[in-house]
Amino acid sequence: MRTPVYWSSALEDIPAPDYADVIIGVLPPRATTDPQVWAKAVFSIRSMPLWIAAAMGLRQMIVPLIGIPRAPRDVFQVARVEGEEALIVADDRHLDFRCGVAVDPEARLVRVTTTVRLKGLRGRLYFWPVRFMHPIVVRSMLRAARRRLGASRG
């Protein structure tokens, strides 16, 4: 019997996050187990549900109004891959963000771990509405990536 142990490189830089969540999906049959491919698919504008792409576009228009810079185009670029996990790193004046996308081939699971460290009042104001939508958004993005990667290998 396997003893569940959980660790993500998203916790290395932010061991005591202000916000954290873990979204888990089932690895589709014959889908790749490469975590970098999964990270790129989860955060790809091409496979992202339309409502999420629209919300991200709206975010880009609104954040300068509260003194937060627009996110660069490569904000969700994979910073590094360690073992079964790809890590995305994004730091800004208002928050530090880490997202680990891991594939467990033995358990046939894909795991998306997010940790956030908020900086100051601006970060807390920005993230207050985000915290409610974040699990819904990530779950939808993972579902879209599962459809795309499950279909591409079958």
C-alpha end-to-end distance: 31 Å
Output the helix-strand order.
Answer: HEHHEEEEH
Number of helices: 4
SS class: alpha+beta
Percent strand equals 25-35%
Number of strands: 5
| Rg | 16 Å
Report the principal-axis shape.
globular
Unreliable residue stretches: none
Fraction of helical residues: 25-40%
Provide the spatial order of strands within the biggest beta sheet. 1-5-4-3-2
Task: Tell me the major beta sheet.
Answer: 5 strands, antiparallel
How confident is the prediction overall: mean pLDDT? 90
What secondary-structure arrangement, pairings included, does this model have?
Blueprint: H1 10-13, E1 19-26, H2 35-42, H3 50-62, E2 78-82, E3 85-91, E4 95-104, E5 109-118, H4 120-153
Antiparallel strand pairs: 1-5, 2-3, 3-4, 4-5
Question: Can you put this structure into words, describing what you see?
Answer:
- There is one protein chain.
- The protein is of the alpha+beta class and 154 residues long.
- The protein is built from four helices and five strands, in the order αβααββββα.
- A hairpin with a 2-residue loop joins strand 2 and strand 3 (85-91).
- The model has no long low-confidence stretch (mean pLDDT 90).
Can you describe this structure in just a few lines?
The chain is of the alpha+beta class. It is 38% helix and 26% strand. The protein contains four helices and five strands.
